[in-house]
Write a structure and sequence with these properties.
This protein is 30% helix and 17% strand. By secondary structure, it is α/β, with parallel strands linked by helices.
Length: 465
């Protein structure tokens, strides 16, 4: 294993070990502060972060507004308050060591307002902003106004070229590094394009080499690239270290920091990670963002798969093979199915999936009455946590809507991520993880249920393991 040389990040030489920022209270001030104190770059999430009252008690995220816009305003205030809180905790825990970054999603609702609200209060405590999930053109301008560096997350050289040409060339001095997030291996939301096959992972080396070539065209040959997604043992990446073809490289860890003493996730979640097998993390497209995402297979994802398979196309009048009338809804209005699809629909109804719900794609899904009620309730209670949501049809625009029907094949991502990060319910909620998470069960470092501190983990990473 080659020794790890320090790398210049956000104005200071640090270990080339970056903590990945995970949203909804999963990467917080405790974990990121500890990572920074150990000499790396700690990253807490500014996405609906936790805040506490004067007694140190968690402030519950309860929306009182009667309309989406009222709840959206509350969400913004919760987001600002939580980001400020976690920045202060991270700063205190870091002991002035390493570097501290905040991660935000460009597609989160009111991202610019929340960013400004946090940074106006605590920008002197931070050193950089990481941002992905979309094309964050304005992140460079925003961070520059606070004297911070920016770290865009991309999954291809093509994406970075578009960002550079449109905006980043104007703020070249503020670009701290470019995060390459492997769209097949990273946890959470993934940047797979329509031209890429989700079932055929590509070798990251040529893709990162292509990114470096684009960066060199832009005069960024010495700007670090941060490799994210699928990194476990650094001894498996020795060809990347001090490689003149790739230039300066650092490594981001998103999944491994979940299993540390400072990690705020529940013990039930930590114990689940220790039992995963290869293939237990599922790349899917159920997210209301429209992006692919990677999460642990459980009852939550099984139910979404079930919704997708209990699905048939319909017409509102007899057309072609759609000749069979089928009554739906309380009034029994007729839609038309093919004979084969009618047989399947009747079978699902007989199994208890008696509620037919329309999708924006002229299909019906069949769910139980209780699930139908849950879906409708969650759609009604939308608080606009995304800039545009497929599930509720919320959009951050004048009309407040995407103009499409809400899609019952998806789910309220805010609700499930809040629940899993603040409870032991790991079976019926969305559990993001990278595809290498099965290695917890194989890695001797975690034998007999060992859960290290962040400091112990970073020391271990430097050995190559």
């Amino acid at each position: 294993m080659k020794s790890l040389n320090p790398i210049l990040i956000s104005g200071r030489e640090v270990l080339p070990l970056i903590e990945g920022g995970k949203g909804i209270s999963v990467s917080n001030g405790e974990s990121s502060g500890a990572w920074s104190a150990a000499g790396g770059v700690g990253t807490f999430s500014g996405v609906n972060a936790d805040a506490y009252d004067e007694h140190g008690n968690l402030i519950p995220v309860i929306y009182k507004g009667h309309t989406r816009r009222e709840r959206h305003k509350e969400l913004i205030q919760f987001g600002i308050q939580g980001g400020i809180t976690q920045a202060k905790i991270a700063h205190e825990r870091s002991n002035g060591q390493g570097r501290l970054h905040m991660n935000v999603l460009w597609e989160m609702g009111a991202v610019e307002e929340i960013l400004h609200g946090i940074l106006e209060e605590v920008s002197p405590l931070l050193h950089g902003i990481t941002c992905g999930a979309g094309m964050p053109y304005r992140i460079a301008e925003i961070t520059a106004s606070y004297g911070l560096q920016y770290y865009p997350i991309v999954s291809s050289g093509r994406a970075f070229r578009a960002l550079w040409k449109r905006a980043y060339h104007k703020f070249a001095e503020g670009l701290g590094a470019v995060v390459y997030e492997d769209p097949w291996r990273a946890g959470g939301h993934n940047g797979l394009s329509n031209s890429e096959d989700p079932d055929k992972p590509e070798d990251p080396y040529p893709r990162v080499l292509e990114l470096r070539a684009v960066m060199r065209e832009c005069g960024l040959g010495n700007t670090p690239i941060i490799m994210a997604g699928g990194v476990w043992f650094l001894r498996e990446w020795t060809d990347w270290i001090d490689n003149p073809e790739l230039g300066p490289i650092a490594f981001q860890f998103g999944t491994r920091p979940l299993l540390t003493k400072e990690s705020p996730i529940s013990n039930a979640w930590k114990q689940k990670l220790l039992t995963l097998k290869e293939g237990d993390v599922y790349l899917n497209r159920f997210s209301p963002t429209g992006f692919y995402s990677s999460a642990v297979s459980n009852a939550f994802l099984d139910e979404l798969k079930e919704r997708a398979t209990h699905q048939v196309a319909y017409t509102i009048e007899p057309v072609g093979e759609h000749t069979e009338g089928f009554p739906i809804g309380a009034r029994g209005r007729l839609v038309y199915l093919t004979p084969h699809d009618k047989q399947m629909a009747e079978a699902w109804v007989g199994m208890g999936f008696s509620e037919a719900m329309r999708t924006p794609d002229s299909t019906l899904i069949f769910v139980t009455p209780s699930k139908a009620q849950e879906i409708l309730t969650d759609q009604i209670e939308c608080m606009g946590c995304l800039s545009a949501c497929l599930f509720s049809n919320w959009a951050q625009n004048e009309a407040g809507t995407t103009g499409r029907k809400a899609d019952p094949r998806s789910f309220c991502i805010q609700k499930t991520l809040q629940t899993i990060s603040h409870s032991d319910d790991i079976d019926h909620q969305l559990m993001f993880a990278g595809h290498a998470a099965y290695r917890f069960a194989q890695d001797p470092f975690y034998a007999n249920g060992n859960i290290p501190t962040v400091k112990e983990l970073i020391e271990r990473l430097q050995t190559g393991d």
